[in-house]
Amino acid sequence: MALVLATAAGILNAMALGAFGFLPSHMSGNASQMSTEVVSPDTYGLLFLAALLLAFVIGSTLARVAVVVGQKLRTIFCLILLAEGVALTAVSVFELLFYSTRFNEEVLIALGFLMGVHNATSTQLSNGRVRSTHVTGTLTDAGIALGSFLSSLAARGETTDRRSCRKQLYTHLTTIFSFLTGCVIGFVLFNLFGFKAMLGLGAVLMIVPLSAIVITVRTASKLMDAKRA
């Protein structure tokens, strides 16, 4: 599921780039750009970037609060993704019906919020192993895992240690590949179908968690029937 989220994050990022020429999840770059906006006499750019950063943080915070509050629910992550899918679908429908460059900043802030939710959800779902939108951090983790694996080989360490390092490296590289694959798919789809492609992504983000919820409920129901029998 976390790797599916990494792919979806890449798709949404590329679609946002194709639509608005801006990456809503690139918080490192957005924070750096704020430094150039500080000295600008026009504060609009600074306020926009600040709002985008704040939206990302709020999205991450709400995702964490939702997990804590709903920790007894086995489907809590699915419910969060379902809500994200509904929100992305609403944004896509709005753009299909009322697209105007006047609304670009507002839509990007909304996408920044959704990327915060998305990243925090995948991070919690994978216990910190997969950060779907944070490629810089994932590349760093991959480098650390590779260094640990090579050090273990050189020192002829425990086989279990090498296995653990190799597994971590595989996870990080798969996450990066999933994100990059998503970027390519997203860019191609947006060039072909425009905001209809974004609407399709919203539908997928609803269908996947809904399917998982149905499977979970059916499994729980069968277990209860077995206990009664």
Question: What report would you give on this structure?
Answer:
This protein has 229 residues and is mainly α. The chain has one domain. Helix content is 83%, strand content 0%. It is built from 8 helices and no strands. Helix 1 runs antiparallel to helix 5 and helix 4 packs antiparallel against helix 5. The radius of gyration is 20 Å and the shape is globular. The two termini are 33 Å apart.
Keywords for this entry:
mainly alpha; 0% strand; single chain; 229 residues
Q: Give the number of domains.
A: 1
Which percent range describes the beta-strand content?
under 5%
What shape does the CA trace take? Answer: globular
Helix content: over 70%
- Largest beta-sheet details: none
SSE order, one letter for each helix or strand: HHHHHHHH
Question: How far do the termini sit from each other?
Answer: 33 Å
Structural class estimated from helices and strands: mainly alpha
Strand tally: 0
| Number of helical elements | 8
> What is the average per-residue confidence, as pLDDT, rounded to a whole number?
87
Overall radius of gyration = 20 Å
User: Which residues sit in consecutive blocks of at least 5 with pLDDT less than 50?
Assistant: none
